[in-house]
Amino acid sequence: MILFDSVTKLYPNQARPALEDASLEIEKGEFVFLVGPSGSGKSTFLRLVLREERPTSGNVWVLGKDLMRLSNWKIPALRREIGTVFQDFRLLPNKTVFENVAFALEVIGKPKSHIRKVVPEVLEVVGLEGKEDRRPDELSGGEQQRVAIARAFVNRPKLLIADEPTGNLDPGTSVGIMKLLDRINRLGTTVVMSTHDAQIVDQMRRRVIELEHGHVVRDQSRGVYGYAR
Amino acid sequence: MRAQFVASEVGNGLKRNLTMTLAVIITVAVSLTLFGVSLLVRSQVDTMKDFWYDKVEVSIFLCAKGSDTPSCVGGEVTRAQRDQIRADLESLRPLVSEIYYESRTEAFARFQEQFANSPIVDSVSENALPESFRVKLSDPTQYDVVASAFAGRPGIEQVNDQRQVLDKFFRLLGGLQAVALIIAIVMLVVTVLLIVNTMRVAAFSRRRETGIMRLVGASNLYIQLPFLLEAAVSAGIGALLAVGGLVLAKSIVIDQVLAPSFQFTAFVGWDAVFAIAPLLLIVGIGLSGIAAFFTLRKYLRV
After folding, report:
1. Closest residue of A to B217, CA-based?
2. I need a surface site. Which of A145, A227, B30, B41 has the fewest CB within 10 A?
3. What ipTM was predicted for this assembly?
4. B282: how many CB neighbours lie within 10 A of its CB?
């Protein structure tokens, strides 16, 4: 699903690489936590998976594609198979819940009939049935994140990238979001989630990859958050 | 590709950015009008050249009584000299296509006609005007051949090429046209910069949408097309206005103001306007397309 082969990423005008000689493999169907302090390379890792950045050296394989050899015009096709969720939700404030999810389908040219069919389905999966016509500012943070997850999942991607999805939510709401991500994972989507939330990691007992100064310092199946204790 | 989605994006974009859209339309209209006018002046010069070069002639003025040019020290031109000049002109055929002798009386009559409304007529007597040969050349650029053959010969006061007078006038028009063209080009550059900036603002104000589009895997075309079309639409409107300006210039300035007051010369016809109009549309839309394309490559990369 994801394979990093001694990947180093050095941003221009920076002395220290954001990611250095990182090698790891994530299998199909896994649920992986990416932990580590700010600046440890988590975001760079996710950006490399999404091919928003190219590694300075090493090889990145995602969904069977060699991203070093992937030509620019094929990037959209790659991203259609990857759902993404962020800490700040990234919803369009002037669109309703339905329209926000539909937008992701419209811009990849899906027909209206298809949109009318799948958007209600995915809204039911994330537990937002009946809130189709609300605007993001009428929703709680947890509900907004559910909209974002619905948008990421509406294409049934093989891979879901979540960059601190609970970072803006209170613990109770976070649990709900984690249950949703867990459910999506059980539906067959590989989930990679970066987080600072020790409680969540400790409760879920899934694979934990810890980064520090751009190095993979721990890779544990059924791990805990770790470094804070 | 869903046309309806793209069309509504373009409409929203233009409305959201109304002031910038208007600025683009106006600068495109003004710069292209100027560009069109400079092209029109150029074809006006061509029209006038065609019109006048057919009519220009070389005048060989013969010595009159009291001429003080060195070649006229022998006094008034003699019959023998005049006949010799005519014979020499005949020998220059086919370069010389027409020869016409204008006597002093004819010259005076023409002078009176030309300056009918001027007080100068009363102060000039028939004797002050020289007799002359009027010569038409089959190739007006070969004037030097005639000039070198006749200038300075006894009995000839002066050899005069009307073409040279016209050329001065055409050079003036050509200079005006060049100035208009330079201003037009500078304006077009300014227009491109304005479009670039407008695109940048538009890309920035829609960075949320375009960011999401990139993340969910929208193709570059889908992300950039609304911006490209916006630029093309506003530039197209500007170009249409410029075409309108050109049509007004032709129908009002040329046909109603200039043509009635300068009836002795020909003016550009509608064919010139119709030749320039599509060019303005192409240049306008092309420029905006190029400006937008490079802006978008920079600000809306995948």
Report:
1. A76
2. A227
3. 0.88
4. 11
Q: pTM for this one?
A: 0.72
- End-to-end, the C-alpha distance of chain A in Å comes to 31
Residues of B with CB under 8 A from a CB of A: 1-2, 5, 208-209, 211-220, 222-223, 302
Give the closest residue to B146 by CA, choosing from B55, B85, B71, B70. B85
Cα A60–A61–A65 angle (5° rounding)? 130
Chain A positions in Cβ-Cβ contact with residue B5 (cut-off 8 Å): 106-107
Report pLDDT for A133: 95
Q: How many CB atoms sit inside 10 A of residue A207's CB?
A: 18
Q: B218 and A76: CB-CB below 8 Å?
A: yes
Sign of CA dihedral A200, A205, A206, A212: positive
From chain A, which residues contact B within 8 Å (Cβ)? 50, 72-73, 75-82, 84, 90, 92, 103-104, 106-109, 111, 151, 155
Cis before residue B94, ω within 30 degrees of 0? Answer: yes
Nearest residue to B12 (alpha-carbon basis) of B212, B282, B258, B226:
B226
Q: Is A33 helix (H, G, I), strand (E, B) or coil?
A: strand
pLDDT single digits (tens) B43-67: 888 888 777 777 777 888 888 777 7
